[in-house]
Amino acid sequence: MKRLTREEYIEAIHVLQKPVGRAKTGQIAAHMGVRPPSVTQMLIKLKDEGLVDYEPFVGAKLTPKGNALARELMARHKVIADLLEILGIDRETAEKDACVIEHHMSRESAARLKQFVEFVQSAPRDPQWVERFRKYCEGGEAR
Amino acid sequence: MKRLTREEYIEAIHVLQKPVGRAKTGQIAAHMGVRPPSVTQMLIKLKDEGLVDYEPFVGAKLTPKGNALARELMARHKVIADLLEILGIDRETAEKDACVIEHHMSRESAARLKQFVEFVQSAPRDPQWVERFRKYCEGGEAR
DNA sequence: CCTAATCGTTAGGTATGCCTAAATTGTACT
DNA sequence: AGTACAATTTAGGCATACCTAACGATTAGG
User: Between A and B, how many CB-CB pairs are < 8 A?
Assistant: First the structure.
């Protein structure tokens, strides 16, 4: 089975706390596909590390430090998802893969990937080679 | 600390068995940055799964099944490392990142990335946009 | 208010990969 | 062949993320 990381919990809380300012244990558990006790346990750890403000029976919300981390993670996440989408992966799979990949890459590679995505996105629009790449994927060769 | 996966052991054995046909416990341990007992333990598990042919005090080599898996993993690994290298990451970092990323991506995305790398590599050589991207990374904008 | 259902936490246990220390096997040199 | 050294395995623990079962708190309906 897949083991989730602290960072993935941070992201989940970031998403879930938006509506009401707090994420509840049950929500987090459902969102991440684990059981509530696992969440409680992790929240205690994250609290010890100063990343979340956790109050039993009430819920958790990110501290400033946690929010900063979340923003960084989300940015990295977006880059990877964008890259995969540029290459023709459907958004849903791209999102899913980004989730698991993002935590495992050096800052250096992440930064470079970000530049690449920006480079492509800043192009007039659909630069020729993206067009050609799409064709290359479907039909045979287009070059 | 980072926990290694079965697949990473398979790859290491694949690399190390080439010269002599077998990888020894100590070699694997050194190569992966773990202690010998951890390797022995893992070799026993991999043997139970039919992936390696392990004989105590002699060494380990991949079974046909293990070799097939290794080839698949190496191919995926190469794609990711190639992509990062195309984007300007030095080979060493690219290799390192590929190691940790490859196990966490869907087949779909892996396949698409492979197509992309092939697409770029099949170009006459250094297509214009790669050139421009490199400039974009160094100086300001080049478009 | 007070009980019932729901949600959360605590307690205790599993799986997995890693470690150190000690025992065992293999090897090389005299 | 015998002994000293090196490599490997065994034995016993630690850490981490997960689980189920049982207990405690919260909330909603009467």
Answer: 77
